[in-house]
Amino acid sequence: MTRRVDVIGGGPGGLYAARLLKRYDPGLEVTVHERMDGAAQTFGFGVGLTEATMRNLEEADPETAARVRAVSYAGHELHWRGPDRSVRLHGARNLAVGRAALLDVLAQAAIEAGVDYRPGSAADLGTVSGDVVIAADGVGSATRAKLAPDLGVHASLGRTRYLWCGTGFAVPSAYFSATARGQEQFVVHAYPYAADRSTFLIEVDDTTWAGAGLGPFDAATGPGQTDEQSVRRLEEILAAELGGGRLLTNRTRWSRFTRLSLDRWHAGNVALVGDAAHTAHYTLGSGTKLALEDAIALATALTGEGSVRSAFTAYEQARRPAVRRFQQLASRSQRWWDSYRWRSGWPAEQLGLSFMTRSGNLTMTDYAKAEPAVVRTALGRFGEPPPAAAELDEWVLARSGRAAPAAGAAVDEVAWSEPDVWGEAADQLVARVAAGPDRPVLLTAGPEPAAQWARVDLAERLRLQTGLCIGVEFPASEKGFAATSIAAGRADFAVFSPA
Ligand SMILES: Cc1cc2nc3c(=O)[nH]c(=O)nc-3n(C[C@H](O)[C@H](O)[C@H](O)COP(=O)(O)OP(=O)(O)OC[C@H]3O[C@@H](n4cnc5c(N)ncnc54)[C@H](O)[C@@H]3O)c2cc1C
Questions:
Q1: Pocket test for ligand 1, best of 6, 35, 298 (most atoms within 8 A of CB)
Q2: Ligand 1 within 6 A of CB of 286
Q3: In which residue ranges of the chain is CATH 3.30.9.20 found?
Q4: Which residue stretches of the chain have pLDDT < 50?
Q5: Which residues, including other chains, have CB under 8 Å from residue 368's CB and lie 6 or more apart?
Q6: In this structure, CATH architecture of domain 4-74+94-155+259-336
């Protein structure tokens, strides 16, 4: 029978798992080992949470959820800030919390439940002896590295670099912007998380990195230090946006996002939660959510009937589908930002529609119901005023049909189902199409959903990089998906395969 649980890592996942274990089974001895001296030492600034996440927390532990809410900053809109104007992308439904404030709440809640919380104490599999070990030691997990042969680790690095900064004031709404300097593009993701603080994340691609000469500054910065020279340079470049103010730093240096997934989330008496087990790109804002929800599922499984092994299996089975879904959404969001450069000249509303539908969890019709003005203006490119939301799909498909090649006209058909549309095979295809004749391309393949997205993503890349007219074959049941893809600029026309 499980009596003692050691948790390695006192981030959101580890602290919340510990709190819930004691809450669900007060007889357990639960220890959290955290190498930092406390929340004030943590990395990063604010993180976004959604109302759906808050509802899950409220169900699992209403008291802690109420305290998280109390330290959160809620009710701000999301905007796209172009060089000459700002467009509202959605209404006041954002909620964000400072990472340090969140950790303070979770640590206090764990202590009150009877958890032995030990800040300033690094641990590893050799120093803990619980019946169960929870590895909540983040994306750089040493526990995962030690168990790698049993876990099946898949990791890859993102194409862009980011610098996680803050500001000493609350920006009036969450927003994205892109400041251009010749070929350089400095993308900002900003949102307020307290009355006097905002997260201010800057992202650059390789062209910008090289053009702005940021590499030497990064290389000259020691481990754990802030890259002061990059920060000063960015304060100059983004002076208009910052009102001439300073950026706040916290061991702020350039990173590439690590996308991580495992074949198994447990080995022996060790289960992994949160970033140690899986990551989701920060532009979806879901990593903390996934860590907290893992904690709920693992604490529930471990305090139910059955062996540790069956609890671990139940935990993994419960969480895999949601984590897979969020990783897929996050990967598409990552790809959208990776390829931002090619959309940078688009009008704000067109960018907004493309951005809001990038992950696939929102259709054009749903978005038109929420923000009709954005969609109406974006669809203005078809040259006629669009109808009401309910009729938009047919309307877009009819208009895009005019771009489709006439019956009998020459079209290059390319079968595609490879998920990676920025890999070598896709690079070769794009180069071949760009060098080929100036005629439409139709991407065809079978009807599996993953391949469907791959075709749409590749179509978008081909459109952006070759300027040719690109069509996608969709199953007849996917009219809404097809219309959204065309409206958002991912394809020029759709061809429907028989049902
Ligand atoms: C730029 C950026 C922006 C983000 N924005 C958002 C957002 O808006 N919304 C969102 O939900 N998520 C966001 N995230 C993701 C989020 O930060 C992570 O997904 C989340 O922190 C994962 O929680 P965790 O508990 O698994 O790991 P972590 O928060 O990384 O915590 C791991 C803890 O383990 C400790 N540790 C490590 N090794 C040891 C050891 N040997 N002994 C003891 N302690 C150890 C570390 O000190 C750390 O405190 C963002 C991430 C990044 C990089």
A1: 35
A2: yes
A3: 161-248
A4: none
A5: 375, 376, 389, 392
A6: 3-Layer(bba) Sandwich (3.50)
